[in-house]
Amino acid sequence: MKIGICADIHDHVDNLRHSIRLFNALQCSNVIIAGDFVSPLVVPSLRKLHGKVIACFGDADGNRRGIAGGMSIIGGLGEPPLCWKSRDGLRFLICHQLQDVRDCIGDSDVVVFAHSHRPSIAEDRHGRLFINPGEVAGWMFRKPTVAVYDTEQRTAEILDLPKMSPGVIIEE
Q: Closest by alpha carbon to 108, among 94, 125, 87?
């Protein structure tokens, strides 16, 4: 079973649509969103996902009531940290900022976090996988990414979304 993982959408609807297309093509049965939708603007696009959504809020989510209202017909949404168990029994701990789970990692198999906008996959000494999918928006580093976790292989990979044009630099 494949699980799509993304975060830090920051209202970039086009890149979100690229990630949705990718998750659907890979037949992800679930999609985890580790916060920072920013506004309800991105929620309608999420209806195109074929997999069930499990999401938490991030620190930049402004209109939480609007986001929650839209997400109520798409999937689960809550305050971090969230615990979720996949159909095959793997335990996921989902948050936006890693510091939110320092004292509650417990027996989680996979910890999904975001906030830094830097994609990473690491394993701790207990065999837990820590996955930061990077940023869907690409605003910070111009390299939008998502992650996919394979529950059968117990592996994750970072996948690039289409390249963005160079950022605009204003000379002083």
A: 94
Residue 22 has a CB neighbour count (10 Å cut-off) of 18
H or E stretch covering 172: none
Strands 30-34, 52-56: pairing is parallel
Integer angstrom CA distances of residue 163 from 14, 46, 160: 12, 21, 8
Burial class (CB in 10 A: 0-12, 13-18, 19+), 6: buried
What single DSSP character describes residue 72?
A: T
The fold adopted by the segment(s) 2-160 is: Purple Acid Phosphatase; chain A, domain 2 (3.60.21)
DSSP designation for 166: P
Say which residue the tokens 């292989």 belong to.
153
- The CA distance from 134 to 153, in Å, is 22
pLDDT tens digits, one per residue of 96-142: 999 988 888 889 999 999 999 999 999 999 999 999 999 999 999 99
Please give the backbone phi and psi of residue 20, each rounded to the nearest 5 degrees, phi first: -60, -45
For residue 136, the tally of other CB atoms under 10 A from its CB is 31
Alpha-carbon span 8 to 16, nearest angstrom = 10
**Other beta carbons less than 10 A from residue 54's beta carbon:** 23
